[in-house]
Amino acid sequence: MDFYYMAGSSGCRTVLMVAKALGLELNKKLVNTMEGDQMKPEFLKLNPQHTIPTLVDNGFSIWESRAIAVYLVEKYGKDDSLFPKDPKKQAVVNQRLYFDMGTLYQSFGNYFYPLFRTGQPGSAEDFKKIEAAFEFLNTFLEGQKYVAGDHLTVADIAILATVSTFDVAEFDISKYVNVDRWYQNAKKVTPGWDDNWEGLQQLKAFLDSKNATAKQ
User: Fold this and answer.
1) What does the DSSP 8-state code read for residue 35?
2) Rounded to whole angstroms, how far apart are CA atoms 100 and 71?
3) Which of helix, strand or coil describes residue 110?
4) Which residues belong to the active site?
5) How far apart are the first and last CA of the chain?
6) Which of 31, 48, 156, 161 is a plausible cystine mate for 13, CB 3.0–4.6 Å?
């Protein structure tokens, strides 16, 4: 399987951790979006939306990290623990995945992506949306060890990729007791955490350079 990625990308790190949990080897192909690799004709043939991550499995091309994660689990998982077949349990996992995409990670993008482009973060209102998203997650995790049920699922892995991104961006996760408790455990039990953290160091170096520029 060919996996088109950048190590610092949250979505790419999600897929790498899911692959590790499944014991899959991915043929990693770096796509440097800063240099426009995603707009090359050969990549556009694979993914007309020109986004990463993109997976090509025996000629089948799929993108969007959470869709890739579920595809890998459903095709290659030895059981359904990471993505339960039970409709109610699966619905909770899906809800958390959509929350991650549309609320939690979206709040990161709204506040931090302007920093990448302009050297200045988003507005105070954007920051409040981060806090609101973490309050929701904190509520989901009340009395819970995992974000969607009683064991590790793809929802934990996706949200771990996102929360760890906030971590290296120096957002104070410790204010959210349930999230912090979950995060400390997730780092220990999630396969591929070390690869995730290694990728985050590339993102951290980029963030640090932007913050240094903004302070000049």
Assistant:
1) G
2) 18
3) helix
4) 9
5) 44
6) 161
